[in-house]
Write a structure and sequence with these properties.
Elements (H helix, E strand, L loop, with lengths): L1 E3 L2 H10 L6 E6 L5 H13 L2 E6 L9 H6 L4 H9 L5 E3 L3 H4 L17 H5 L3 H16 L3 E5 L3 H13 L5 E5 L19 H14 L1
Parallel strand pairs: 1-4, 2-3, 2-5, 3-4, 5-6
Helix pairs in contact: 7-8
This protein binds pantoate.
């Protein structure tokens, strides 16, 4: 498994695998759990070269405090990824992805003004900015997203259509804790009691 932090190092590694390979891509913000690993494993089973990105994208956080406290666990993430069989981990710094501010404004109509979009203004625009950039950098045939973030997946499919990007977005099953709570990096921010209470969401849905 190769660890790269720059676009040029990533390109060099990708080129070394030759041109007759299918590239699978799993974009993440790190703090990896079984949910992410299931995406990587699916990518490994369906493509030849799997790139996992770890990048906490500032443009999708509408609250600076939320960005600051987002869990960052790079060493543990790399240890987990080693076991998945992915070939490249791409962990760029902010200046690598945004050498200049990204002022693009996507229009997702109603898709971004309901549910999570209603409570996190600008969030999905930031997701579209970073994922479109990452798609252009990694140039994958297939990219893997968890169905846990159903609205995000829908927005990304819409963004791919708007920009005519040659990427297939593959939806992947939700992985749950024993309590039924969907696995999420943000669960780490919950107290034991909050975590217990959060299981009510899936209980109610089921
Ligand atoms: O789902 C996430 O972790 C992020 O929104 C993504 C897709 C990696 C973009 O930063």
């Amino acid at each position: 498994m190769f660890f790269v932090e720059t676009i040029s190092a990533l390109n060099e590694k990708l080129e070394s695998f030759g041109s007759f390979v299918t590239v699978g891509f799993v974009p993440t913000m790190g703090a990896l759990h079984e949910g992410h690993l299931s995406l990587v494993k699916q990518a490994v089973s369906e493509t030849n070269i799997v790139v996992v990105s770890i990048f906490v994208n500032p443009t999708q956080f509408n609250d600076p405090k939320d960005l600051e406290r987002y869990p960052r666990t790079l060493d543990a993430d790399l240890q987990l990824l080693e076991k998945t069989g992915c070939q490249i981990v791409f962990a760029p710094g902010v200046n690598e992805i945004y050498p200049e501010p990204d002022n693009r404004k996507f229009n997702f109509g109603e898709l971004e003004s309901v549910m999570e979009g209603l409570h996190r203004p600008g969030h999905f625009n930031g997701v579209a900015q970073v994922v479109s950039k990452l798609f252009e950098i990694v140039k994958p045939e297939k990219a893997y997203f968890g169905l846990k973030d159903f609205q995000q997946l829908t927005i990304i499919k819409n963004m791919v259509a708007q920009l005519n990007l040659p990427v297939q977005s593959v939806p992947c099953s939700i992985i749950r804790e024993e309590s039924g709570l969907a696995m999420s990096s943000r669960n780490e921010l919950l107290s034991a009691e909050e975590r217990k209470n959060a299981a009510v969401i899936s209980e109610t849905l089921f």
